[in-house]
């Protein structure tokens, strides 16, 4: 793999959770794999005061707590820590950006980092605009002496209007090719593997359409609650936090046409077409098509778990959804009439992300089934954990007559390679440094996704009588979500953390 050009990476919000849990451990892993530039410095920037030494110590602690690398030793962490320094920046004070510019100039001279800068906004989204304006005001968007890249974490806006405004403001200062909008799900190996599964194997393509597929289900469940993020989450909710970005991007990859090449825009154009083909959910259909829920306090494995409204920084009468299940259609030739079901929630029984393709049943049932329920062929693409692919199909049970049983054929990603699967942030940071924007959301994708989400958000706002169902923490969400599945006796799959099991009996 090629080494990126020399550069300085500036992380705004460097003392925050994202930097310590994800970015710094990912950069550390890239360093161990020798995938950082020959000459690179990482400059933490933020509102708090740290000396360089204090910042380095803090980041080494983060690596010890959150790195996925097995063999950590002082020599490795110290040689990484030597790349780090820190500057205090008040995001609202343009003079501080003048100081930042001076500091970058000095670091660049002393470490020969090639005059290239990447700015990573790992801050609350409310300050993206101010930071970007101040960077541009200080002349730090100008690319005459090296490249200038701007990375924005999600959420990018909180509705269509705010996303358009932010895009508009950024485009007045920087080009779209300088902007990288992170959706970390796109950095997951197994999400990229959707493309390989579909487009490297000839057997799937002829079946991948309305003639053979009955329905598609995408689940992204989490066992954790909102943890320390109550104040952000309470103004966001599951629809904005997970559906607008991660789940719609996964829908795009599952449903898109084959791209003409793997060029960033070829892939992104196909995802965009799917987002543009989503049939809008009308206000009057929201109660039937979109189920929202909020977790309530419960006892999980002997431990009392607070309800969402009891969480820190959450309003005691909060109407924010921590669970969403919805049905929608994609209006194009491939998918006309095929329902897509997506669901996401916090405090569910397991952390699982998977895509389930349900194939249509045979038109005539010849055989007697061992199980009472009629099953269909299913292809399950497991994004996490126990990453892999499972195909479920019917086989004859040994013995007289034709009794059939649904069986599994499974592939586990861990069997493919002996090495650790790189984290999403490793992949994304490496891609930014090497200038590959394929796995980043383009402005039109983000806006089109908001266009689909906004009417639902608005319907909830305008019609408080639309029910917000409670569900006990540790369960699969409100049972009303089962009612949105079309067809007698059909239900969601209830996955376990191990790919091959589902239903009530899961390995703990
Ligand atoms: C983030 C959301 O984008 O994704 C979080 O803001 C969520 O609320 C997280 O917990 C889930 O990511 P992962 O990689 O753990 O599935």
List keywords for this structure.
508 residues; 10-stranded mixed beta sheet; 6-stranded parallel beta sheet; 18 strands; binds 6-O-phosphono-beta-D-glucopyranose
Task: Describe the fold and architecture.
By secondary structure, this protein is an alpha/beta fold. The protein is 32% helix and 21% strand. It contains 13 helices and 18 strands. It has helices spanning 17-32, 52-66, 74-81, 94-111, 128-137, 160-173, 189-199, 230-234, 238-255, 264-277, 286-289, 424-433, 443-462, and strands at residues 7-12, 40-46, 84-88, 117-121, 148-152, 179-181, 213-221, 290-296, 298-300, 303-305, 323-328, 340-345, 352-359, 368-369, 378-384, 388-396, 403-412, 468-472. The strands form three sheets. Strands 14-17-16-15-13-7-12-11-8-18 form a ten-stranded mixed β-sheet. Strands 3-2-1-4-5-6 form a six-stranded parallel β-sheet. A two-stranded antiparallel sheet has the order 9-10. Helix 1 crosses helix 12, helix 9 (238-255) crosses helix 10 (264-277) and helix 9 packs across helix 13 (443-462). The longest helix has 20 residues, at 443-462. It binds 6-O-phosphono-beta-D-glucopyranose. The site of 6-O-phosphono-beta-D-glucopyranose has 4 residues, from loops.
